[in-house]
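Run log, item B.
One chain of 193 residues. Sequence copied directly from the ordering sheet:
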Amino acid sequence: AKEPEKAITSINIKAKPTKTEYIQNKEELDLTGGIIEAIYNDGSKTNVPMNSNNVTVSGFNNKVLGKNTITVEYEKKTAQFDVEIKAEEQKPIVLERIEIATPPSKTSYIVGENFDKTGMIVKAKYSDGTSKEITDYTIKNGTNLVENQSSITIEYQGKTITQEIEVKAKEPEKAITSINVKAKPTKTEYIQN
């Protein structure tokens, strides 16, 4: 009798792909690591990688949240496995840094003066790429400036930045210490009454 031709009777999923969770609308199906087991009519079995050219895959839809059933087809036989479509996690937006967008109008001071923020624009930069102007920042070491102080520190929600300034010593105040006569008037003789 003629041997019956060797044929595949069924296939099953021997190993799901390594990646079984996908982010909605973002990630495409990745079959790496997925293995199909093909069972023949003589009882023998072979392993076929899911990403082989002769395997077709259908049913992947990353637009719909939840369970997604994938059908794999090999030699006209099919098997299925599920993957999970998840919503993208919303990362909290955090303050990354602050910056001085426009320096203050006045940067030169005399000892004892207070820092003047007029004209200064401070911006907060966030992790989502946005920035906004802030006014509720704190100025450290900005009062009663001391000689040779080179900067003041601006703080906002734990982030700091420095603004360079120049602080000069007070000019000594002018005071008269003595007087003398530099030239006598031309007329020095007078007639009584």
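Observations after the first pass:
- The chain has a mean pLDDT of 92.
- The longest strand covers residues 77-86.
Flagged for discussion on Thursday.
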